[in-house]
Amino acid sequence: MTAASDIRAKTPDELKSLLLDLRKEQFNLRFQRATGQQENTSRVRAVRRDIARVKTVLAERARSAVKG
């Protein structure tokens, strides 16, 4: 799990690439669950929350760019 402070320290380009990597991992985890190969079920929840954290920071930065 990634800390919010670590996410906030990244640039927007780094955040977008991190988001892409997390979505690929989420897809792979869903595929593993469907085929019955998944071992670490808690990773699904952690990845989903990391995606939410990254999207939240990106949205905050977009809002602040519009305001100022």
Provide structural commentary.
By secondary structure, the chain is mainly α. The protein has helices at 4-8, 12-35, 42-67. Helix 2 runs antiparallel to helix 3 (42-67). It is elongated.
Distance between the amino and carboxyl termini: 32 Å
What coarse outline follows from CA principal-axis ratios? Answer: elongated
Instruction: Count every helix, treating DSSP H or I runs of 4 or more residues as helices.
Output: 3
Radius of gyration: 14 Å
What does the main sheet amount to?
A: none
SS class = mainly alpha
Count of extended strands: 0
Low-confidence stretches: none
Query: Which whole number gives the mean pLDDT?
Result: 94
Relative helix content? over 70%
N-to-C order of helices and strands: HHH
Assembly status: single chain
Strand content: under 5%
Question: How are the SSEs placed, and which strands pair?
Answer:
Layout: H1 4-8, H2 12-35, H3 42-67
